[in-house]
Amino acid sequence: MRANATEFCKGNALCQYKAKGLLKEVGLPTGLLPLQDMEEFGYVKDTGFVWFKSKKNTDHKFEKIGKLAQYGSEVTAYVEQKKIKKMTGVKAKELFLWVTISEISVDDPPTGKIYFKSPLGIGKTFPVSAFENPEDEKEEKEEQRK
């Protein structure tokens, strides 16, 4: 994987920066993968393959929708414009079950909705705003004022 990587880095701060940059580049909300203690990030631009390695699993509650998600210590996927597919390492809690998430997409043109699918094809829709990073929103507003 590393040998074919167009982008590769180690260390939490740089990996966070690269991961958010990639999500923004492909038109997805930057708060979508709130991984903590990232150790490694890699991206193969030719295929769209991306991986994120963390020291441990990350549990995160998306407060705006009241949903809990769990990110494994290794998350892999293929990214393309407005979509993540063949994702591994991500689960969402639905009632009493943890459901694997394999695909995420947003509409083009934008409708303000984001779609999540399981490997069984079962899906759920939420507002994109629930997955936007509040820090990024502040930065964008400050840049617009300048």
UniProtKB/TrEMBL annotation:
<feature type="region of interest" description="Disordered">
    <location>
        <begin position="127"/>
        <end position="146"/>
    </location>
</feature>
<dbReference type="InterPro" id="IPR036758">
    <property type="entry name" value="At5g01610-like"/>
</dbReference>
<protein>
    <submittedName>
        <fullName>Uncharacterized protein</fullName>
    </submittedName>
</protein>
<dbReference type="InterPro" id="IPR007493">
    <property type="entry name" value="DUF538"/>
</dbReference>
<dbReference type="Pfam" id="PF04398">
    <property type="entry name" value="DUF538"/>
</dbReference>
